[in-house]
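BACKBONE GEOMETRY TOKENS:
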Amino acid sequence: MKVYGLTGSIGMGKSAVAAMFRREGVPLFDADAEVHRLQGPGGALLARIEARFPGTTGPQGVDRAKLGAAVFGHPHERRALEAIVHPAVRDARSAFLRRHRARKFIILDIPLLFETGGQKRLTGVIVVSAPAWKQRKRVLARPGMSVAKFRQIRGLQTPDAEKRRRADHIIHTGTTFTDTRAQVRRLVACLSAKTGR
């Protein structure tokens, strides 16, 4: 089984592209969705997060604003949270790989792929990219987002130009939805042909 990584900086349209791959029948593991599940109501990580970051969880799971305030801009605290979350996500990913081991290829949606060195274990990397002006417009339209927060998030991510340089495949989302979907379909056909799916 070949394993491809899907990544892209904030506001590039990666979630929309991931949904397109799923609609094409490609098994796709979404690391962010798994984190939300683990931190949501009744989530497996709530007790450990509450113990380390008191007052950041409740009946609805993690209070993302409170947890974000506790770790954002505090590298030591962010690493403490990652030490709780990352092993659980790795376990879920391993279970996903076992479930789909008969497939010729699958995709792992990993937002911080290059930042964590995760590309080393993959067959190839698919990067979702859009022009900087469109990225900025999309991100600043999000509730609770500010220019300062956007800059801070972008500062923690590998620059888009570097991601594109290191990519095996690029999906451009600075165009129409229809064109992006066509790019995804072409790539699925290409990867299927390579693996004989």
About this structure: The two ends are 10 Å apart (CA to CA). The chain has a mean pLDDT of 92.
